[in-house]
Design a protein that fits this description.
Layout (H helix, E strand, L loop, with lengths): L1 E6 L5 H11 L4 E6 L13 H5 L2 H8 L5 E5 L4 H6 L5 E4 L3 H4 L3 H8 L4 E4 L2 H7 L4 E2 L14 H7 L6 E6 L10 H12 L5 E6 L8 H7 L2 E4 L8 H8 L4 E3 L5 H4 L6 E3 L3 H14 L5 H5 L4 H17 L1
Parallel strand pairs: 1-2, 1-3, 3-4, 4-5, 5-6, 7-8, 7-9, 9-10, 10-11
Helix pairs in contact: 1-15, 8-10, 9-13
């Protein structure tokens, strides 16, 4: 099978994982991405920037491909306007729930198949679609001794460590809320507590941070299917999170874990996890979102679209 991919950035880690796992299934892929030079000074792209995908998409669509996969709803206009290839579109979260959501909905209605990351997104989309969350590599993210992992990072062994795996400046991740929650939790236990914002490190290193930490804290205002939560589960790292994306369904049956939009409950959740020192049973549930399962589901969608 031959697939033409559209993507907003070919540096997106989860997109490259998807390409790699599908290539292992015999899928030949060509990728067209937006140039990084089109990003505005405020870090955003304009509608015009996304329309720049259209000329190369039309040109490439004349090749021998079985289908086109638009990765992110922001590439959907170029995908459906090429008119020649059947089209699959994957919605990642902000493309459906952010400022371009109405545009995304209008264009994805013309696609042959739509993929979303969570049941929350499925409800918001309001039309037929497949729920296929981004998969995680269970061989890379695996439980390791916490003390040894903390020592490798030179973290204080007498301190409790809270992991916030996002940039502080990303408003949608709400770092100020995370800081408040950790500050209040630290007043309730005898140990020192440190909040670590970890970003920009090689992805293969994130497993080390997951195993060294005592709890993962997620305070996002919205998400699709946050990989950090699934990776934490695979490492048996307890998670305390706001109820965004597929987090509530992912953490059903995972203990200890807390999902709430109430600050007092989140503070209590962090406090209890830090005081107990327990790891979770998350890996038992993480198999549901493995990268191999994701590949199986994507291949089923590709076959349906290519043969319809």
């Amino acid at each position: 099978m031959r697939v033409l991919n559209l993507v907003t950035s070919d540096e997106a880690r989860f997109f490259n994982q998807q390409v790699e796992i599908l290539e292992g299934r015999g899928v030949e892929q060509t990728t067209i991405s937006l140039p990084t030079s089109s990003v505005e000074g405020n870090g955003r792209r304009s509608v015009v920037d996304y329309l720049r995908l259209l000329p190369p998409t039309i040109y490439r669509s004349m090749g021998e491909y079985d289908l086109l996969h638009a990765n992110s709803g922001l590439t959907a206009p170029a995908a459906v306007l090429q008119c020649r290839l059947p089209t699959v579109v994957s919605l990642w979260g902000t493309d459906l729930m952010g400022r371009y959501g109405p545009i995304t909905k209008q264009f994805t209605k013309r696609c042959d198949s739509v993929i979303v990351m969570s049941e929350e997104m499925e409800e918001q989309y309001g039309h037929d679609c497949h729920v296929i969350p981004h998969g995680i590599d269970l061989e890379r993210f695996t439980p390791q001794p916490r003390e040894e992992s903390a020592e490798r990072l030179e973290w204080d062994p007498d301190t409790k460590h809270v992991l916030f795996p996002y940039p502080r400046e990303r408003a949608v991740k709400d770092f100020p809320r995370a800081k408040r929650i950790v500050s209040e939790a630290s007043c309730r236990i005898d140990d020192d507590v440190e909040l670590h914002t970890v970003t920009g490190v090689p992805h293969e290193s994130m497993s080390l941070y997951m195993n060294a930490a005592d709890v993962l804290l997620l305070t996002s205002e919205r998400e699709g299917s946050p990989n950090s939560v699934k990776e934490a589960m695979a490492c048996n790292l307890p998670v305390v999170s706001t109820p965004v994306g597929d987090v509530p369904e992912r953490l059903v049956g995972v203990s200890p874990s807390v999902v709430s939009d109430d600050d007092a409950t989140l503070v209590s959740g962090v406090t209890d996890v830090l005081a107990s020192g327990r790891r979770s049973n998350g890996r038992e549930k993480a198999h549901e979102v493995s990268i191999t399962r994701m590949a199986d589901q994507l291949m089923d969608v590709y076959r349906d679209v290519a043969t319809s």
